[in-house]
Amino acid sequence: MISRAQRDFDFSVVIPAYNEEKLLPFTLDHLNSCLEQLNEYQGEIIVVDNASTDQTIEIALEKGAKVI
After folding, report:
1. Using one digit for the tens of pLDDT, what is the confidence trace for 21-57?
2. Angle 14-56-42 (CA atoms, 0-180°, nearest 5)?
């Protein structure tokens, strides 16, 4: 079993996305706010991009999400 100190994250929030530049900033801001309130747990946000042609990837990275 891996100890808590050895893990980077306790959980991941995975968001599938395709051309979501209009809604993604609000979504990520809200999720980041929720994650900040969790004192005992460390979470990460992963945006799974489906070849967006807008600014989805750039926005996700700016908001601190991991992009796949």
Report:
1. 999 999 999 999 999 999 899 999 999 999 999 999 9
2. 35
Question: Can you give the pTM of this predicted structure?
Answer: 0.85
CA distances from 53 to 18, 44, 57 (A): 8, 24, 9
CA proximity to 65, closest of 46, 43, 41, 42:
46
DSSP string, 1-68: ---GGG-S-SEEEEEEESS-TTTHHHHHHHHHHHHHT-SS--EEEEEEE---SSSHHHHHHHTT-EE-
Would you say residue 2 has pLDDT above 70? no
Q: Could you tell me the residue ranges of all domains in the chain? A: 4-67
Q: Which residue has the tokens 């801001």?
A: 29
